[in-house]
TrEMBL record:
GO annotations of cellular component type: extracellular region
Superkingdom assignment: Eukaryota
Record keyword Signal present: yes
Protein name per its UniProtKB record: FAM3C protein
The encoding gene: Fam3c
Location in the cell: Secreted
């Protein structure tokens, strides 16, 4: 009886150990599978985060072709945030640079090289239009001209100033009114009307801000001037 009891005990212990071994093996396999899934998912997440969308010059939506200059610009927001003009990833005018002001903000760029030439703003509410006219007349042929309004860019404009701007390729300048928002990119000596222009009228029924319309933004690729 003692031997039979001992044999039964050995069998029970053996079954217990075998069962424990099988369970542990299954558990480890599941753990390995879970860990593998976790690591694989982490690797995929890391790969997804590392694949960032490409960034183009000035933050525009697509790359410009060869022999073109990338630009992006925005008018001012009411009388609070100034306009911004960027060409070839170079911010030429902005509130951060502290070189913008009420009225019409102008940036000049070399049409062959894309290099900045000058930046100025002209107060068309409380200022004098004469210096603006002289500035427009002094622009050299082949120069890219970018303009953006801030606060009010039209009150002091006269027919001579409007005509000079229209000769740069603008079609909206003749209708630019009090507190309208407007951005424009043209050139001195341009033979056709510019395709780069946005204009929103000041209208109390549609204005986004009290007394001012919403900001207008524009981006594009300016053809390089060829000899």
């Amino acid at each position: 009886c003692f031997f039979i009891g001992a044999a039964k005990l050995v069998v029970v212990i053996a079954i217990f150990l075998l069962t424990f071994y099988v369970i542990s093996q299954v558990f480890e396999i599941k753990m390995d599978a879970n860990l593998g899934h976790i690591f694989a998912r982490s690797a995929l997440d890391a790969a997804a985060h590392s694949t960032k969308p490409p960034r183009y010059k000035c933050g525009i939506s697509k790359a410009c072709p060869e022999k073109h200059f990338a630009f992006k610009m925005a008018s001012g927001a009411a009388n609070v945030v100034g306009p911004k003009i960027c060409v070839e990833d170079n911010v030429l005018m902005s509130g951060v640079k502290n070189n913008v002001g009420r009225g019409i903000n102008v940036a000049l760029v070399n049409g062959k090289t894309g290099e900045p030439l000058d930046t100025k703003f002209f107060d068309m509410w409380g200022g004098d239009v004469a210096p603006f006219i002289e500035f427009l007349k002094s622009i050299q042929d082949g120069t890219i001209v970018l303009m953006g309004t801030y606060d009010d860019g039209a009150t002091k404009l006269n027919e001579e100033a409007r005509k000079l701007i229209s000769e740069l390729g603008s079609t909206s300048i003749t209708n630019l009114g009090f507190r309208d928002n407007w951005v424009f990119c043209g050139g001195k000596g341009i033979k056709t009307k510019s395709p780069f222009e946005q204009h929103i009228k000041n209208n109390k029924d549609t204005n986004k801000y009290e007394g001012w319309p919403e900001v207008v933004e524009m981006e594009g690729c300016i053809p390089q001037k060829q000899d």
